[in-house]
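Note to self: the last two entries modelled the partners one at a time, which told us nothing about the interface. This time every component goes in together.
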Amino acid sequence: MSSTIREADLGPSKITPLPARTAANAPAPQAHGIARNPGMKLDLGFMESMRSVNRSALERRVASLTKRRSIKADNQAAWLLRAVACMDLTTLNSNDTEERVRRLCAKAVNPFRRDIVEGLGITGEKIRPAAVCVYHPFVATAVDALRGSGIHVAAVSTAFPHGLTPLSTRLQEIEASVKDGADEIDVVIPRGLVFGAKWQELYNEIVSMRAACGEAHLKVILGTGDLATLRNVMLASMVAMMAGADFIKTSTGKESVNATLPVGLAMVRAIRAYFEETGYLIGFKPAGGISTAKASLDWLVLMKEELGRRWLEPDLFRFGASSLLTDIERQLEHHLTGHYSANHRHAMA
Amino acid sequence: MNILERYHAMDYGPAPEARNETDAWLAARDFGKALFVGGDWKAAGGGRTFDTSDPSSGKLLAKVSDAGAADIDAAVSAATKALPKWSASSGYSRAKVLYAIGRAMQRHQRLFAVLESIDNGKPIRESRDIDVPLAIRHFIHHAGWAQALDKDFPDQKGVGVVGQIIPWNFPLLMLAWKIAPALAAGCTVVLKPAEFTPLTAILFAEICERSGVPKGVVNIVQGGPQAGAAIVNHPGVQKIAFTGSSEVGKIIRKATAGSGKKLSLELGGKSAFVVFEDADLDSAVEGLVDGIWFNQGQVCCAGSRLLVQEGIADAFIAKVKTRMSRLRVGSPLDKNTDIGPLVDLTQLDRVRGLVAAGAKQGAVCWQPDVALPSSGYYHLPTLATGVSPANILAQEEVFGPVLATMTFRNTEEAIELANNTRYGLAASVWSENVNLALHVAPQLKAGVVWVNGTNMFDAACGFGGYRESGFGREGGREGMFEYLSAKLPLGPAIKPAVAAAQSIERAEGDAIDRTAKLFIGGKQVRPDGNYSIAVATAKGKLAGEVGLGSRKDIRDAVAAARACKGWPEATAYNRSQVLYYLAENLSGRADEFAARLTELTGATAKAAREEVEMSIERLFLYAGLTDKFEGRVHQPPARAVTLALHEPVGVVGIVAPDNAPLLGLISLVAPALAMGNTVVAVPSEKYPLVATDLYQIIEYSDVPTGAINIVTGRSAELAGVLAKHDDVDGLWVFADAETCDKAEADSVGNLKRVWTGNGRSLDWTSTEAAGDAFLRRAIEVKNVWVPYGD
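The predicted structure of the combined assembly is written out below.
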């Protein structure tokens, strides 16, 4: 009378595994790596079947989701370490300098105070952000600073944050960042294509971006705060995945509304549908406004509940964050000492 | 496990809610003196107690006073003693008490939540985030009603001492639903919690002590079925409010028949959860989690029948199974628990038995492979597919985490399947198409319909059922009426009908002989039995003969009334014009009807003329009100609107009185028709010719076939047939006491809504004999929740 439901297991399937990418964290999540999404033709019928997104129901789901799960004590410390391992440590400011980027990279390589590493018993494990995310002019600096660490370098690209330059310019931008050594490219979509329902044009642009990326992984930022409805978020997610996105990402951090859980829920449901249809695993990156340890746990719970354990690895889940790391450090210190901590007790980036 | 291992595992682990404060409260109390009567804590007579235990472990929590009949008597006395002062106190002062209760509960919110979870087994997330906040909301909401009473309910008074019996599935919330409106209305209360879950009610009584509730206004008596029966049968109680099983509800209906006690019943359900192909399927799956896997499925309005459109059925069931495999079954005090234990071993046995029986009848029962605690009354969430409508899992209320699934082909079939049940408490409709959702919602026979949601509740929105799910509403304006009564100008007792002597001599005159038949399905038909009875004039001569209607004629009339769709589905404007037209045509023959009244009743020409004129006026009144007695739109504290729709009760049987044979009949039939009901009327037994004279008027007034049916004959006998007819939804009886009592007692077959004059006559000429009080009897309030946002 009883049977077991599989979580997303990886084989046997039609997927030919690509060579494993160097993992920032040891050990590598899957020995054989993850099959890269080749994309598919734009399937408007599939999109149509995903059109039904009921905002108030999604809001109720996330409201109860964060109340249904509670992570305490040692588990909480472990989950916060997981949040760090799934982090794209980010600086995207107009006043960034090479020195500032070098500092950020140093923090990424060595995120925790020594006593915290020892106290948590993780000395044998390199737990640190999966990538550092910067503007194009700082890619080379970051690549230098992170050489040999296994930490990826991600570049925001394609006229970030608006995406409103000629396509050729945007593609050249990707190529330049790849040339400088970025192995992850975070592109933005022109939001107007969504409002105009110009799905074929959007699809074509993302296909070209994917081609420009080459071996570098493509994260497609939807700018969900601009898209107005969860239905638009869902449809744009589907187009991005069909066009070959490795990751879909919520926000640039520059929209007036950042990553919210209802938006995240719509996007992970899109990822689930794409997986069920094609067998490919697409990553998810919420970004913007996620600055507290508590908030990071909510997102991890969302991933685990909606997609399963497999999506709690850095090859399928990333936080785009800048100040989150410090808050997590404070919580970890509190976990060890029972004392509430202060920002200045932890090295700044 | 060290942190690194946990980092790799990424499990949730236990997150226990602290219970030390609650254990301290339990340890400090003397549960042998747990009866809260007249403001004092008392032991039960003879010191009897019963056990209450923790369903997650079976361990004894407390031995609680077990009230007997004498204790109930004392509680009713205390409530009676407190009544005059409390009911006379100002709305403002009662509002202050209700507000104080709500605020005090807020200050002890977590204690209530933990205590509830320990006693009932419900997950702490639910008691903390749903039960307790909603209970508080009820008190604060009803503080407002206390103060608004004079303005919003003119001419209404609190019914008096109320007896309230509540179930174990939402112990505190059901207490709040019962006590808050009663106190707002100025009633005093004797409330009996369920034996399985007495504890939060005891804590609530402590709150009352501290919140300025006058002694005797709230009495809480712990006990079992005997205590319940003593409340139901107590002559000092003016109203019974019961939430629980349909089985016990029917016993209470029978026990209170003829007692004149006001009654509201909130009973079982087998609520449909309808998923159309254009629904947000992932959200609908979550709706099921909130629908059938909320409170272990021990919810009267649980969405226990999943109806899913064929084209998406496989995909949807796959999603449901995946979701079920992520449900966590475990300790109620673990913050990560989705499903706790059932309340008691007896309940667990019952659910297991029903699942086994369902499987035997062909259902495929699937359960996810999730961990189950080793002790405690746990039951895995269960999905039954391949369930035919005849399967026990589709028919019976399981009251456990068991979902029965069926598919449908089109909208019409979805509605038919949804309504294919004796119950009618709630329903969910999932579709992104607002046209479809709002097309289906009014057609579902259920007191609450959630569009793209489930188990949403609020104090401002009425809750209650159709059919055997009971009657009366809780919450909101309609809930307040359950604790209020308007003074009807009831007169002397009606004497039982005496059969007229059959050998009366024909009155003089040379008119052509007329045959008064029955009026069924738009036609004048002979009675099935082909007997007639004589009708006498006031002077004892033969006025004529009418058909002697029998049970078969009632059967045919009910079938005709049920088949009539043209009337309930007509627009209110259309019904209005038909009623005006009836008035117009009656007016055209006013002289003839006045003469008939004089002939039969001996009324003076003036009095007879007045009765006719008043009947015409009353038809005019209700014609005008068809499109004015409308529902409201609630705005609960959520992004949703709740449409409180006034729907017709359905087929209404009417047994009209002898006093004012025309006006009495019209005063009852017109409001029923105005609200879209179809009617089977039994006219005055003594003066039926007044009604048979109406046939022609009905025939040429554009009344749809079957909307009005008239069966002449012996009122008591025909009332009994109507009472026992399970396709009659409402029954209004103005006859002698015995007929009224029997109508109530015999209505338990389908729990039809019965309204009687308790054997007293009514002054039909009075202004109180018309208006909202009658229209309210002619409708069911259906609350349709429509969440929105894009």
